[in-house]
Amino acid sequence: MAHYTKREAQEWAKESLKGQWTTLMTPFTPENHVDEEGLRRNINHVIRLGTKGAGCTWGMGEFWSLTHDERVNVMDIVADESKGRWLTGAHVTHSSGAEMLSLAQHAESVGFDVLIVAPPYIATKTEDQVVEYVQMLADSTSLAIMFYNSPQFGIVMSPLGLKRLCQIPNVVGVKEASFNQQLSIETHLSLGKDHVISTPDEWIFWRGKELGFNQQVMFSNTSDWRFDTPEANYYVQFIDKATEGNLDEEFYDTHIRRIKELSDTWWTRTVTKFNGALPVPMVKYWGELMGMAGGHVRPPMIELEPEEKETLKRELEPLKPKPPAVVHATAASPNPRLSWLTGNNSFFSGMLLMVSVQNVQEALEAEQGGADVVDVKNLQEALVGSGHPSIVRDVRGIIPVEKHVSVTLGVVPNQPGTVAMAAYAAAALDATSVKVGFRVSDYDTAVDVLRQARSAMEGFNTKLIGSLFADNVLYDGGLDPMLMVQLAKDGECDGFLIDTLTKDGRNLFDFIPETKLKEIVLQGKELGMSTSLSGHLRISDLDELARINPDIVGVRGAVCGNGERDRAVAWEAVANFKRELDLRKSGEVNVHNGAHNGEVANGANGNSVVVNGNGGGWVIIDGRGKSCAGVIAALSQQMTADSHSFVEAILADALNIYDVIVWAENAGHHLITQRKDTDGTTRVLLQPKAIS
């Protein structure tokens, strides 16, 4: 129960509303009653997640479907189970002012700490009406009031309107859930100094860091009980740190990013299916999959189809959080921006196949054929351009979350602001990566364009890929493709792509030889960048590509129905290319003629291996489920940080094994042993060159 006077409400809110708040769903029994026992279990489950407070009968609590008595009953259960362990908020919006005041009076009488109110739906069409309505509530209660700004209630208040509301003494702030990022940012900047402003999504922390404000509370969402368990409450940990001003990007990428991407995909898909309504059916079923009581939704909401539930269950299962394992030996932590390469995720293992598509049908063909990356582009625009946002949105919606959906911007203009806007749009559409390509440009301008794109994408999970074209040498003022690695580094990219533009039958290898491409790719991997090659590549180029071993191989013509890029992608051709690529990854097709494939026993020079010599130790880097770039980046950072420890890399991909050994030799490190385990993995033991 709150202990403050009406005049102290705003000060109390600034001191007390912090960290992660949850939104409780209202579970129903098969007989369509409120599941009181299930609600009590849910409350105690979410308290164990470490959340700071909870709201009931909000949007996700299906308040519109509850009778007055049911809303009161839910409040009573929440108050009883909380028993001072939690701060609690009651949503009291109603189209009847008298009903609103009655609900508020009950919430105050049973010990709730804060009220939340939104515009009274149906009749409210002006900001003056909303201000009058909230004033009526404020006059009748001593509790702090948070205003809920959401299009679900028929009107979205402007920053000026929100300022008028916050001038009411016990209106302490705003849950700004308009889904309009600019409105959220303006509200934080104009009101956040004196009032509690909360946008219920993590992107706000990245924009706040950029613009100089910090959101003190996540008020509130369902992400805690959909993403966390009591044994692995990573989301709650992240939000608690972020609301204190510690934005831990590496922690987010490691523990939250992938399940959040799955959530965003299903959220968008369900909202679109129901024409803008809140995705309550999806959220309730997701909660059940995490051990919560949910039950059906009430009309007019409609349940997910059985096939949809089965798909969600299958996609969520591998992403459920796992308690942290005991670590016996660890390498130096890679740069946080590299975590998408170094995370424990088989999705990144070995060469990936990227297929360029122009529409949803081609995307489905590529996915059916086994493509790892579906790349949306527009071949009809001169020099290759970007697909329409609606195509990107639709493709992202139908491609499983564990697959990449990348966006190609093509040859971009030398206009940093224009490119930044395009990159921002790709990120907002939940693209996994966006490729920014340069043909005729000076180096400094290209760096500026990339950095502006990087800045525009902060707060999103989308990766920035810089791109140069091997045939830039054909154009006056063409940016030298040999500058690719340096450009990607200076442009703060997550990776790079070398491609071609020419349509005269020549391909990548006609402009850059295999040996040079191998050198470029190894340089990129050592810096922790993803490395991609494309440019009219065909199956006949696979041996050369496998020896180079980029993280991603991009194709189109090779997987079209007649082998020509202007025809449609065919899943059979994709499957064939993927099968041939995998044969080289597994080593069944040996592209190295036996080099580095023999096992080394007992030390390269016939000497036994000394562990813990010179004060050093033994560090294991598990390369299974990591890209080659991720493994080499981790090795490089470990050996730079600690030259006195032996490093053992566990690898499962034949091409990655070869590249790790080549990289080690080029860097002057010593190969001590190479042995194959019974599970098919290979262990490579390396001695850093600085060990004497």
Main attributes of the structure:
692 residues, alpha/beta, TIM Barrel, 2 domains, eight-stranded parallel β-sheet, eight-stranded parallel beta barrel, 20 strands, 39% helix, 15% strand, elongated
Report on the architecture of this protein.
- By secondary structure, the protein is of the alpha/beta class.
- The protein folds into two domains: 6-319, Aldolase class I (TIM Barrel), CATH 3.20.20; 351-586, TIM Barrel (Alpha-Beta Barrel), CATH 3.20.20.
- 39% of the residues lie in helices and 15% in strands.
- The protein contains 25 helices and 20 strands.
- The strands form three sheets. The protein has an eight-stranded parallel sheet with strand order 7-6-5-4-3-2-1-8. It has an eight-stranded parallel barrel with strand order 9-10-11-12-13-14-15-16, surrounded by seven helices.
- Helix 17 (389-398) links the parallel strand 10 and strand 11.
- Helix 4 (97-109) runs parallel beside helix 5 (127-140).
- It is elongated, with a radius of gyration of 28 Å.
- Residues 325-347 and 596-615 have low confidence and may be disordered.
